[in-house]
Design brief:
The protein is mainly beta. It has three helices and 18 strands. Mean pLDDT is 87; it is low at 261-269 and 273-278.
């Protein structure tokens, strides 16, 4: 069963100002509103634009005052809930959290929609923030990054997972106005000087800073979760599509199964029909680290591809 839970908060409030969900406290709601979304999570050094959520059938009062949502905070969780044989409720989770940059309503015939443009970081070239980066002589890079981000994002949780030994024999200072500029500069600097690029992202409502030594606990991808076969899309970059998952994000380690041919309970076939079992094995296996994710959803669509997660990842030894 498909699951979503969308909450909008006024600035500084922890009580939802608007709340739409497919599973209220009473259980599954067959009359839940249709939501359509395109949510990308990737390194902030990569230009990838904003995130989009469209809600169908909103109340007329929300449609008439659609601009009121601009500047509010949003949390959006999605995935699969129990109700179908292969659905795994543990895979649902927060896939988007940030600030509503723009909001606008539309009314065509009998269709009323509310469109939300979401950005994890509210700062831009037109609305800059004082990202004052100071990396002192002999200071660990992790401490310098933490000091910089804490000043600008005092209320966001920050996780830094980079190797020790990122130090210099001189002071390094950099001033920029957006997180994109800081992430691009820092990734280029560490790639050139240490051959170990430091990546900054904001997955699932928290700031994540990591390098190639970051290795969280692997998340297993089941064979039945896959939609089609994984493929190479760039040098050393593999792309795969799964049922919508909220338990994986940028930086996560995933483990692909080898095949199903020797799984307990699997029905074998005769030698003559052996070729038909090739679709029961994968062209890839082992551990991969996620470079970026793209969550695509249309709640009322019967197509499985319209409630899926597209993952770009690279081999992880």
């Amino acid at each position: 069963m498909r699951f979503y839970d969308l909450k909008i908060f006024k600035t500084g409030s922890k009580t939802p100002y608007r709340h739409w969900t497919s599973h209220p406290q009473t259980g599954y709601d067959p009359a839940a509103l249709n939501v359509t979304f395109d949510i990308i999570t990737a390194s902030y050094a990569t230009p990838w634009g904003a995130q989009m959520i469209t809600i169908d059938g909103v109340a007329l009062e929300d449609l008439a005052q659609a601009q009121q949502f601009a500047g509010m905070n949003i949390e959006f969780a999605a995935g699969m809930d129990k109700g179908l044989p292969l659905a795994d409720p543990t895979q649902k989770g927060l896939i988007c959290a940030g600030t509503i940059w723009q909001s606008f309503g539309n009314w065509q015939g009998t269709d009323m929609t509310l469109d939300l443009v979401i950005v994890p970081s509210p700062f831009s070239v037109r609305l800059p923030a004082p990202f004052k980066f100071e990396w002192l002589k002999g200071q660990e890079l992790s401490e310098a990054i933490s000091n910089t981000l804490t000043r600008v994002f005092p209320h966001l949780p920050i996780q830094i997972h980079i190797a020790s030994g990122f130090t210099q024999d001189h002071d390094e200072r950099h001033l920029c106005g957006t997180l994109e500029q800081l992430a691009t500069w820092l990734e280029q600097l560490t790639r050139i000087r240490f051959n170990n690029p430091v990546v900054i992202g904001i997955p699932q409502g928290q700031i994540l800073v990591y390098d190639k030594t970051y290795s969280p606990g692997p998340v297993k991808i089941k064979f039945q979760d896959l939609i089609g076969q994984p493929v190479w899309v760039a040098p050393n970059i593999m792309q795969m599509k799964t049922a919508l998952r909220g338990d994986v994000t940028q930086g996560s380690i995933i483990t692909l199964p080898k095949d199903l041919l020797n799984s307990p309970g699997f029905v074998t076939t005769t030698a003559a029909a052996r070729s038909s079992t090739t679709r029961q094995s994968l062209t890839f296996s082992g551990n991969f680290q996620i470079q970026q994710t793209r969550h695509l959803g249309q709640y009322r669509s019967p197509d499985a591809a319209n409630w899926s997660t597209v993952i770009d990842c690279y081999p992880n030894a």
